[in-house]
Design goal:
about 250 residues, alpha/beta, Rossmann fold, 10 helices, 5 strands, elongated, binds zinc ion
Length: about 250
């Protein structure tokens, strides 16, 4: 999973798994609406982030295919009137967050005139408005639409461990036994999102096994096992970063 540090007004998320794309959408939405924490609570734990997680945040709208006139049958496409409604709504200020987000869980069902209407919005997005387009088949999107958007591929095990994770591993091992260096390390690690933390803990175990020997390794491994157990119950990343940073080499 990427860290979403530079999200454009338009983003296309591609991938085979719709749920995977939606969870990436939620993580982007949390970054956009709440990257500095919310009312003093940890990122991901505040009411803003929790609403996003449950898909009930008033400033995150989901645009899906509507029903046909019979009121029962889903249309095969998202039509231009829906995008006109989005255009109207997008100039209204957010309800409670600092930005507004329109999510298209099946952007590849936008028909051509809907895409052209959306293109206008992407070309001149209202201030603080973001469009997140999920597409199993990104080729169904007009090249002009794609070229306006950041493209993210979601999922796929082939993704290599990020440079940031590798560098955190190296620096952690180098910092062991040095309280100040560990504190600096903690400040970096606590900015990770949960997905990155899930990469970091096993990566640290692997790096430690390679770099350390004997007793130090055993107690560090125990610490990392404890962290991995806490990951499974979704302890927040700040807490995990702090646990790792307080590890003391007993020798
Ligand atoms: Zn939050």
């Amino acid at each position: 999973m990427q860290s979403w540090n530079k999200i454009l007004h338009g983003s296309v998320l591609t991938g085979a798994d719709p749920e995977g794309m939606l969870s990436a959408v939620r993580s982007m939405a949390q970054t956009l609406l709440c990257s500095e924490g919310h009312r003093g609570e940890a990122f991901g734990k505040c009411s803003c982030c929790r609403k996003i997680y449950k898909d009930i945040h008033p400033d995150v709208s989901f645009i899906r295919r509507g029903f046909q006139k019979d009121g029962k049958t889903l249309r095969s496409e998202i039509v231009v009137d829906q995008i006109r409604a989005v255009a109207k709504d997008s100039v209204v200020l957010p309800n409670e967050a600092r930005a507004k987000i329109y999510v298209f869980p099946e952007a590849d069902t936008l028909n051509a005139s809907a895409q052209n209407a959306l293109l206008k919005l992407l070309e001149e997005p209202p201030e603080g408005v973001y469009f997140l387009l999920c597409a199993k088949n990104p080729d169904a999107l007009l090249p002009t639409v794609r070229s306006r958007c950041g493209i993210y591929h979601v999922g796929g095990e082939e993704e290599a461990e990020s440079e940031e994770i590798a560098s955190l591993c190296r620096d952690y091992l180098a910092a062991l036994g040095d309280e100040l260096a560990l504190l600096r390390w903690e400040a970096r690690a606590e900015k990770l999102d949960m997905a990155a933390m899930r990469e970091l803990i096993p990566a640290l175990s692997a790096a430690a096994a390679e770099a350390l020997r004997g007793k130090a390794l055993l107690s560090l491994e125990e610490q990392l096992r404890e962290c991995a157990a806490m990951l499974r119950v979704n302890v927040n990343t700040r807490h995990l970063a702090a646990m790792l940073a307080t590890y003391r080499n007993e020798e």
